Every structure is written in structure tokens, then in C-alpha cells.
């Protein structure tokens, strides 16, 4: 429920759902990762999000979704070095377009325009439908 409400922009309801789920099972890696990602998307409570995503990765290593959450939190914290470590791992194992698109965003910020374009195109082939993905590809520019 937390993830669905986060996608709908119902932040308060989303946070309550995540917190309720974590009360029932504080060691659920997916819940920790999804909550951390939702906070990162809003650029809120990023230190808390980092703790949750780090714990999720400890509990469930080598899972693209979980790695993506930590990489995206680092991205939002402007820690591009650590973001690259985690987003690259996630993108290498990813089948989700958003993971690959975010890796492309990071590469663009690191000045690797051609590599970023390649990842954005890969995201498109994976079914990426973000409203800015086509614009990024056509204009070879980062839009967030």
C-alpha cells in the first residue's frame, strides 16, 4: 500500500502504510527499500532513507530493486561516488526501466553523456514511459 500511495503522491498515507508494515516486520528488505526510495523521490528525510536502504541491502544483497533504492538515495544526497556504485550494480541486474533511466541520469551528471544516452535508450527498450525519458534522449540533456 505504501508503494502505491507513494506513486499516487499521497505522501502522508504512504508513510503511514510503510511505517505500519515496518512495525509488523522491521526486517523486511523490500519494505525498507521501497520506503527509502519513496522518501528519496521526495528528497525528504534522506539520512533516514539512507539507513533504511543500507539495512535493506544488508538483509537482501544483490537485489536490483534494493540496490536501486540505496543508489537513488545517494544520488539525492549528491554523493555521486556512492550513487554510482549502487546504481551501476542495480542497472547491471535490472529489468526495470526506471533503474536504468536513473543510472543514465547519474552518468549524465558525471559528464558521461554518451553512456547516459545509451542507458536512457536501454530504459526505453525496457518499456520506460517516464514523461521526460524521450526528451532526455532527443535533446541529450538531463531533465529531473
Number of helices: 9
Sheet with the most strands? none
Kindly name the structural category: mainly alpha
Radius of gyration: 15 Å
Assembly status: single chain
SSE sequence, one letter per element: HHHHHHHHH
Number of strands: 0
Mean pLDDT: 93
Q: Helix share of residues?
A: over 70%
Sequence stretches where pLDDT stays below 50 over 5 or more residues: none
Termini gap: 25 Å
Can you offer a commentary on this structure?
The protein is an all-alpha fold and 144 residues long. Helix content is 75%, strand content 0%. It has helices at residues 2-7, 11-24, 29-42, 46-59, 64-76, 80-93, 97-109, 113-125, 133-139. The longest helix has 14 residues, at 11-24. The model has no long low-confidence stretch (mean pLDDT 93).
Tell me the layout of helices and strands.
Elements: H1 2-7, H2 11-24, H3 29-42, H4 46-59, H5 64-76, H6 80-93, H7 97-109, H8 113-125, H9 133-139
List keywords for this structure.
144 residues, mainly alpha, 9 helices, 75% helix, globular
Tell me briefly what this model is.
This protein has 144 residues and is mainly α. 75% of the residues lie in helices and 0% in strands.
Amino acid at each position: 500500500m505504501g508503494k502505491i500511495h507513494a506513486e499516487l503522491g499521497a505522501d502522508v498515507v504512504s508513510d503511514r502504510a510503510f511505517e505500519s508494515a515496518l512495525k509488523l516486520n522491521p526486517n523486511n528488505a523490500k519494505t525498507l527499500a521501497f520506503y527509502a526510495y519513496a522518501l528519496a523521490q521526495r528528497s525528504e528525510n534522506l539520512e533516514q532513507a539512507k539507513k533504511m536502504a543500507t539495512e535493506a541491502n544488508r538483509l537482501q544483497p544483490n537485489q536490483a530493486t534494493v540496490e536501486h533504492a540505496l543508489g537513488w538515495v545517494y544520488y539525492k544526497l549528491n554523493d555521486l561516488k556512492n550513487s554510482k556504485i549502487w546504481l551501476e550494480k542495480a542497472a547491471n541486474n535490472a529489468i526495470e526501466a526506471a533503474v536504468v533511466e536513473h543510472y543514465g541520469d547519474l552518468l549524465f551528471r558525471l559528464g558521461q553523456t554518451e553512456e547516459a544516452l545509451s542507458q536512457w535508450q536501454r530504459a526505453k527498450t525496457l518499456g520506460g514511459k517516464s514523461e521526460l525519458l524521450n526528451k532526455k534522449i532527443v535533446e541529450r540533456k538531463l531533465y529531473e
